[in-house]
Specification:
- This protein is α+β, with helices and mostly antiparallel strands and about 150 residues long.
- The protein has 2 domains: about 10-65; about 85-150, Beta Barrel (OB fold (Dihydrolipoamide Acetyltransferase, E2P)), CATH 2.40.50.140.
- Helices cover about 20% and strands about 25% of the residues.
- It contains 1 helix and 7 strands; from the N terminus they run αβββββββ.
- It has one helix at about 10-35, and strands spanning about 45-50, 55, 90-100, 105-110, 115-120, 130-140, 145-150.
- The strands form 2 sheets. The chain has a 5-stranded mixed barrel with strand order 3-4-5-7-6. The protein has a two-stranded antiparallel ribbon with strand order 1-2.
- Strand 1 and strand 2 (about 55) form a beta hairpin.
Length: about 150
């Protein structure tokens, strides 16, 4: 005769599985019984107080501040023509310039920092050891000297 395929371990696992299923079913029914589904929109709404905190009470109307939507600026304001800042002009000395390749470096007179300069950013032609006046712009790899002219 053949042996029973049901072992003690298998029956224990089956009992645990059935118990889990029953517990899950009980929790589901309990959630359904205690749920506040359909209680209304008023219970779901949230307010923001004057400090930016979320609350469930409506704000005090006496503390309401009216903001003109047109006065809100999103982003960086555009630069207006004629708003050039002369204080941004720097002075320095050309430490290296290769006219055949069209680039070089300028050493700042005050900070002794080196800045890259390209031929497209020149106003006057420059050579090594020339004293120049320039402005800085953010480039792909750091600050670049632009609008470079001899002094």
């Amino acid at each position: 005769m053949a042996k029973s395929q049901q072992t003690f371990g298998k029956s224990e696992k089956e009992k645990k599985r059935l118990k889990k299923r029953e517990d899950k079913k009980k929790r589901k029914e309990e959630r359904k019984a205690n749920s506040k589904k359909g209680t209304g929109f008023d219970n779901m709404i949230a307010y923001v107080d004057e400090f930016g905190q979320l609350t469930d009470t409506p704000p005090d109307p006496s503390k309401k501040i009216i903001v003109d939507a047109e006065s809100i600026v999103i982003g960086i304001p555009k630069k207006v023509e004629g708003e050039e800042d002369t204080s941004s002009n720097r002075q320095g000395k050309v430490s290296f310039f290769d006219s055949s390749k069209g680039f070089g470096f300028i050493i700042d007179g005050m900070t002794q920092e080196k800045f890259f300069v390209h031929v497209s950013g020149l106003i006057d032609e420059i050579a090594e050891n020339d004293k120049v006046e320039y402005e800085l712009e953010k480039g792909m790899k750091g600050m670049n000297a632009v609008r470079v002219k001899k002094i």
